[in-house]
Amino acid sequence: MNLGRLNHIGVATPSIEQSIALYRDLLGATHIGEPFDLPPQKVRVCFVDTPNSQIELLEPLGEDSPIARFLEKNPAGGQHHVCFEVPDIHAARAEMEAKGARVLGEPRIGAHGTPVIFVHPKDTGGVLVELMETPKEAH
After folding, report:
1. Within 10 A of 96 (CB to CB), how many other CB atoms are there?
2. How many Cα atoms occupy the beta-carbon half-sphere of 46 within 13 Å?
């Protein structure tokens, strides 16, 4: 497996609307998608496009959302994960596990509509890493 393109940086937020305003009004973002619910992941999502990647804003969708637990520890929000593309999610998972990394759960469909996995931050230098199968309509 080779590390692919940085697809996005996930940022947990208690309010997507406030975060949209921050990225638009303070930082000058001009390409901001519409927020949408992703019930299987228990999050509300909005993508902010940058010239070379995206910011994925994540708001909890329900009290049992993993983002709700993150926000308990970080009430103002913050960086949640980084996401890299890989050509084959199942091969990436097998390789991560063969190298001793802990993969959190089974592959599931992420916000871009492709399979994703997460690698435990204790195995990746303290950063939660999402690996995402490269979308078919690649960049």
Report:
1. 21
2. 22
DSSP 121: G
Note the pLDDT tens digit of each residue in 29-52.
Answer: 999 999 999 999 999 999 999 999
Instruction: Give the total residue count for the chain.
Output: 139
Active site residue 17: no
Q: Is the pLDDT assigned to residue 139 strictly greater than 70? A: no
Q: For residues 9 and 53, what is the distance between their CA atoms, to the nearest angstrom?
A: 8
Sign of CA dihedral 24, 138, 36, 13: negative
CA distance 22 to 72: 21
Looking at 56, 59, 130, 133, which residue is catalytic? Answer: 130
